[in-house]
Amino acid sequence: MPGDGQMALFEPPRPDGRSPETAISVRALNHGTQRLLEEHVPDVWVRGEVANWRTSSRGHRYFTLRDDAAQVDCVLFAGDAWRLPADPDDGTEVAVFGRPKLYEARGRFQVVVRRLEAAGEGLWRLAFERLRRVLEAEGLLEPSRKRPLPRFPRRVAVVTSRDGAALHDVLTVLRRRSPWIDILVCDCRVQGEGAAIEIRRALTTVGRLERIDAVILTRGGGSTEDLWCFNEEVTVRAVAACPVPVVCAIGHEVDVTLAELVADRRAPTPSVAAELVAPDVAALRERLDGASLALARGLRRSVARGRERLDRHARELPRGVRVALARGRERVGRHARGLPRGVRSALGRARGRLGSVSGRLDALSPLATLARGYSVATDLEGALLASVERFEPGSPFLLRVRDGSVDAITERTMRGDP
Amino acid sequence: MSGSSELDFERTLEELEEIARALDRDDLGLDEAIALFERGISRLRAANEWLETASGRVEEIIASASGRPETRALEESEDGETGDSGRG
Predict the structure, then answer these.
(1) Number of Cβ pairs closer than 8 Å across A and B?
(2) Cβ contacts (< 8 Å) between B76 and chain A: which residues?
(3) Cβ distance A156 to A184 under 8 Å?
(4) A81-116 pLDDT tens trace
(5) ipTM of the assembly?
(6) Would the pTM of this model clear 0.90, i.e. be above it?
(7) Nearest CB to B84: which of A221, A281, A292?
(8) Fewest C-beta in 10 Å: which of A25, A75, A94, A262?
(9) Confidence check: pLDDT of A27 > 50
(10) Spelled out in words, what is the top-level CATH class assigned to the domain A15-119?
(11) What torsion, rounded to 10 degrees, do the Cα atoms A142, A144, A146, A150 define?
C-alpha cells in the first residue's frame, strides 16, 4: 500500500491483543477468525440429524445439524433450496455440503449449505409420496379421468426442450408414421430451477391453440434431480388441467414421474410416446389395399351372378339376351377402363366368358339361319310350324324372314319334297 | 398439411370399407354393384392420393406480447442428434 509508509507516523500502533491496551475489536476478532476459516477449511460434507427446521418468508431454510456430542447451525438459502424435493422432518439423517463460516455480525458459527441429501433418495421419495397422496385424494390418478387418444390426429403439439434428444426422436417417429400431421413444438426447459413454471406456461399456451388433437410432453433420461421438475406440483397440475389429451414420457422406462401418472397416457420413451399418437401410414395403406381387393372381389361376384342369370334367361329368350349381353358388355367395358389393373384383368376374364356364352347363343339361335336366306313359319302365338300337319287351308300364319315377318294364309298343303 | 388436405381421410377410408362390405352382399343386383363399385373406386383414388401427397408442417410456437401464441417454421438444431444435452 503506497500510503502506509507516509501515514505510519501519525497512526496509533496496531493493536496486537496481548494486553488490555492493545485489545482488538470484536469486529477484528470475528473477521480474523472468518478469514482463517476461509483460507484453511474447505467446503465439506457433514452428516448429522436435522433439528429445528424452519423456512423464512423469503424461502431460506434454517436448521440445526447435530449428533450425540455436538451441533452446528446451518442455513440453506432460497437460491439453493429449490433443489430440495421436500423439507426433511426433524430427526431425519442427512448429509449437507457447504462452507463452514462465521457469521461475523453475530459471531455465530454456521454452515452455509448448498446441498442437502437424505440417505438414499429419501427426500425425493418423501416428496413424491406426499404429492402422490394429495393427487390420489383429489381423484387425479383415477383411470376414469384418462381420455382416449384421437385415432387419427391432424395436429400434435410437442412440449419439450428444443435442444433435447427427445424432440429429435419424437419428430422422427411422427414424420415417419404420420407424414400428414402438423407438428407444433413448444420449447421449455425440462430441468433445473424454474423448469416447472416453463412447462406449465408451455402447456397453457398449447391449450389455447385451436384444433390440437394431442400433446406429447417429454424429455430424455437423466438423474432423479434432472427429472424432478416432472414431480413438481406446478407441472403435475398443468398436465391435469390440459384441455387436450396428454401423452407423457419422461426419462427411461424405470423412471416414473407424477406428471406421467396424471397424464392420459404414459410412454416408456419419447419415441414410444410418438408411436402412441401417430397411426402408421403403412397400416393405412394396407387397409386401402384390402378395401381395393374387396371391391374387385365384390364386383367379380356380382358379374358372375349376373352372368348366371343371363345364361338362365338366354335359354328362354334368345333375342332379348343378345341385346342385353351387348349392352352389358358395353357397360362392363366402359367401367373397366376406369379400373385399377387387378380389377381390369379380372373383368377381362369375365368378358371372355361372356363372349363365349354369347357365341354359343349365336350358334343355337335360328336368327343365324334366317340371315342366310331361310324363313321360318310360326302360328300367331309364335309356335313353330315345322310340318304340313300344322297348316290348315285358309288359316293365317306368320312367315319370319331375315328382316321381319310376313302375314300369310295357307292355300293348300302337300306332302313330300317341296 | 398441404395439397388435398381437406379430405377427411379417416371417414373416406371408413366409407370405402363400408362400400366393400355392401358389395359383398349376395342379393345385390348388377346395377347396384356397379354403382357401389364406382363409388368405391372414387373413394379409393381420393384416399390414395391424399396419403401420397399430404405432408404436415413442423412449426414452433413463439410466445407473443399479445399473449396469443404465434408459430414459425422450426429449424431443427443439430444438438438434437447428440444425445442428452444439458437441457435434456
Answers:
(1) 172
(2) 167-168, 171
(3) yes
(4) 887 888 888 888 999 999 999 999 999 999 999 999
(5) 0.77
(6) no
(7) A221
(8) A25
(9) yes
(10) mainly beta
(11) 170
